[in-house]
Amino acid sequence: MTITKQMSIGQVLNMDRGTARIFMEFGMHCLGCPHATAEAIADACAAHGTDADKLVEKLNAYFAEK
Question: Fewest CB within 10 angstroms: 29, 36, 39, 41, which?
């Protein structure tokens, strides 16, 4: 499966908890918050001033290596 900016953080975390480290690298430290896990990656990146395309690229690279 390919990760997209429209997917929620929770969806990605449920696929593999190892992705939490990647989210944290991009400044998303409140991964346990119910609002944060339901938020789309694009929206979370906008709120944190992070590049959604780079985050999605890194997440997809992580899954490709598995």
Answer: 29
Q: In the numeric block, which tokens belong to residue 32?
A: 């346990």
Give the residue ranges of DSSP H helices in the chain.
9-15, 20-25, 34-38, 41-48, 52-65
Return d(Cα 37, Cα 64) in angstroms, integer. 22
Boundaries of every domain in the chain: 9-65
Q: What is the mean pLDDT of residues 48-52?
A: 95
pLDDT tens per residue, range 6-15? 999 999 999 9
Encoding tokens for residue 56? 């999605």
Q: What are phi and psi of 30, to 5 degrees?
A: -105, 50
Residues 26/45, Cβ–Cβ less than 8 Å? yes
